[in-house]
Amino acid sequence: MRGLASIAGQLVVSCQAYPGEPMRSPVIMAAVAQAVVEGGAKGIRAQGIEDLKAIRPLVDVCLIGLVKRGSDGVFITPTVADAVDCAAAGADIVAVDGTRRERPDGRPLAASIEAVHAAGALVMADCGSLDDALYSIAAGADCVGTTLAGYTGERPVSRGPDLELLAELVANVDVPVIAEGRIRNPDDALACRNAGAYAVVVGTAITHPTRITRTFADHLSRSSE
């Protein structure tokens, strides 16, 4: 079983590298995915069709897949074709932009969700507000996430996870709510679960050695001043 039920109350790890980074390779991301599963992750969130294809045969946990096109506006699995490609590459759940903004292909969110369901996968809508979540659920999303909290102009960027939005979603929607975004340590993850998160997605704090290393290096530099 690799669907939503398999990640209930569990940790999902986002295995993604940014463009231009040394770890930006399907082979490397697949190895990272294997490593975090050995560490106890019950799900993987990964970006890019080639990464998904490399990861799928190596881990038997829920795979949340997406593609990114650019970095502005609707860029997380922005088109129906992108969503279908993620499902075909082995994603159990396809993550899509769950905002009310216009999509590059001019088609509604419901079209992406319908296509993913037809391909046998589920949909996670990455949202930035309660209105986004309600819109996504009306369009057929199987679960919603706080992924875009603070990045769409509707809410300020919180220092840590947006627990306020998380609690608001939990209280007002009838699908699983997945916490994601600025979860920087185990205490943040626990706070999200205690606030009602169905599952918790952690990325940078686990899988981004450049950022982790910079945290240590900066701390040592400040201490020596």
List keywords for this structure.
TIM Barrel; alpha/beta; 8-stranded parallel beta barrel; 9 helices
What does this protein structure show overall?
With about 220 residues, this protein is α/β, with parallel strands linked by helices. The chain has one domain (about 5-215): Aldolase class I (TIM Barrel), CATH 3.20.20.70. It contains nine helices and eight strands. The protein has an eight-stranded parallel barrel, surrounded by seven helices. Helix 1 (about 25-40) packs across helix 2 and helix 3 packs parallel to helix 4 (about 110-120).
Number of strands: 8
Query: What is the name of the CATH architecture?
Result: Alpha-Beta Barrel
The oligomeric state is single chain
Q: Give the percentage of residues in beta strands.
A: 15-25%
Residue runs with pLDDT of under 50 for 5 or more positions: none
The CATH topology corresponds to TIM Barrel
- Shape descriptor reads globular
Number of discrete domains: 1
Secondary structure topology:
Blueprint: E1 11-15, H1 26-38, E2 43-47, H2 49-55, E3 62-66, H3 80-88, E4 93-97, H4 109-118, E5 122-126, H5 130-139, E6 143-145, H6 163-172, E7 177-180, H7 186-194, E8 199-202, H8 204-207, H9 209-224
Parallel strand pairs: 1-2, 1-8, 2-3, 3-4, 4-5, 5-6, 6-7, 7-8
Pfam families: NanE
Family: Belongs to the NanE family.
Pathway: Amino-sugar metabolism; N-acetylneuraminate degradation; D-fructose 6-phosphate from N-acetylneuraminate: step 3/5
